[in-house]
Amino acid sequence: MPQFEQIDTFVGQIFWLIVTFGVLYFLMAKVALPRLASILEERENRVSGDLEKAERLKQEAEEVLSDYQKAIADARASAVAALKESADEIAATSAKRQAEFDTQLSEKVQIAEDKINAARSEAMGHIKDVAKDVAAAATSKLLGTDVTDAKLSKAVDEALGEQN
Amino acid sequence: MASGGSIDPMHQFEVTTLLPIQLGNYDISFTNSALFMSLSVLLVTIFLVGSTRGRALVPGRWQSMAEMSYEMVANLLRDNVGSAGRQYFPFVFTLFMFILFGNVIGLVPGTFTFTSHIVVTFAMAIIIFLAVTVIGFARHGAGFLRLFFPHGAPLWTAVILIPIELVSYLSRPISLSVRLFANMVVGHVLLKVIAGFVIMLGVFGFIPLGVLVGITALEFLVAALQAYVFTILTCIYLHDAIHLH
Asked: Rounded distance, CA B168 to CA B225, Å?
């Protein structure tokens, strides 16, 4: 087995082992490992940074959404209030107009009734005269006697009074 | 293997000099072993530095693999040693990549596997063993010797426990190095012997060829697994040195 026979090569093998291993150690420790470490760290930072950013954006979006919902709710509330206000106003106006109209109407009714009453009493007055005349004419024609004015008006009044 | 005289399954482990270098009394020639160690360093560096050149936020395939190997070793160290092991991360990571690439490159036909040499694996194991022992004494002083006698055990058991713990502690570099060395050697010998059968059986060579394909796949698993085992054991030794059991 050359591993145990070539004893004269041992020193050389150990020498080159130390040299090559030393070179590799230097290259790893000074170049490759710091670079790999920085790459991995950078990626870690980047990923966690991105996650943070995403979280922040999500929060912002949620805030915007809640603001929007609040604005909608406010607008709805104010619309309802405005609607109620104008409805109240309309109701008040119409009630007022109704009241005005009612008083006007009752005034007119009163005036008309007064007129009717006046006309009626006037008519009644005329009826009395006519009735007196008719009664006087009728009695004179039928009985041939004249009745006194006082008697006539008394009789007519009685007759009208019964009717009324 | 009378007829397979030309096929020597041990030939692949031979260290051959490519560039003779003499330093004082020592022969430190640049050999095929040194070549593949250098190649391993080069490929690991290209893999990790080249793939992360773009520093992409969304990694491509190569960068993704580099990141996976980084996180795999980082998790291994954190799970086994805890946050105190953080400062040893470059060493543990280098160790894992060096052995992994050494093992995997060695599976390419015609290459040399430097982890199949006991002197290399033992050198790595003994350096880890000494470093861990130094870390243990530096952190706990003489209290590190508590490692050989667990808390709460009756005092008389010390007679048995301390020698056992001491032997198991001292055998760590041996078990660590022999495990990797033996796995690599056996795998490569097996591949070579079965490959010899393919040639010997002629037309019927397709039968061992099928087996060879399966074993090659298995060897890739072993290559990765042994690099992992070597690393995880280093982490466990570090844990013992830092936390004492």
From this structure: 23
Instruction: Tell which of A24, A41, A43, A45 to mutate to test the B interface (max B CBs under 10 Å).
Output: A24
Measured between CB atoms, does B235 come within 8 Å of chain A? no
pLDDT of A145 above 80:
no
Per-residue model confidence (pLDDT) at position B167: 94
Read off the pTM: 0.74
How high is the pLDDT of residue B6?
58
Decide if B205 contacts B197 (C-beta within 8 A).
Answer: yes
User: How many Å apart are CA B232 and CA B180, to the nearest integer?
Assistant: 13
The domain locations on chain B are 12-243
Structure-model confidence comparison of residues A132 and B85, the more confident one: B85
Q: Give the up-direction half-sphere exposure of residue A5: CA atoms within 13 A in the CB hemisphere.
A: 8
Which pLDDT band, with edges at 50, 70 and 90, does B66 fall under?
Answer: very high
Q: Is the pLDDT assigned to residue B23 strictly greater than 60?
A: yes
Residue A63, pLDDT > 90, answer yes
Q: Which residue has the higher pLDDT, A136 or B15?
A: B15
> Encoding tokens for residue B55?
């520093």
The C-alpha atoms of residue B196 and residue B5 are separated, in whole angstroms, by: 10
Q: Does the beta-carbon distance from B67 to A13 stay under 8 Å?
A: no
Task: Kindly list the residues from chain A whose CB atom is less than 8 angstroms away from the CB atom of residue B123.
Answer: 13-14, 17-18
* Closest by CA position to A24, among listed B181, B102, B72, B68: B102
CA–CA separation, B213 vs A81, rounded Å?
89
**Spatial contact of B38 and B50, defined as CB atoms under 8 Å apart:** no
CA distance B197 to chain A (A): 21
Q: What is the pLDDT of residue A79?
A: 96
Instruction: State the Cα–Cα distance between residues B157 and B144, nearest whole angstrom.
Output: 19
pLDDT band per the 50, 70, 90 thresholds, residue B3: very low
Whether A13 sits inside 8 A of B57 (CB atoms) is no
| Residue A36: closest CA among B95, B98, B56, B227 | B56
List, in order, residues 6 or more apart from B223 with CB less than 8 Å away: B100, B103, B104, B106, B107, B184, B187
User: How would you classify the pairing of strands B30-31 and B17-19?
Assistant: antiparallel
- Chain A residue numbers with beta carbons less than 8 Å from the beta carbon of B29 are 9, 12
Quick check: B46 and B115 in contact, CB under 8 A? Answer: no
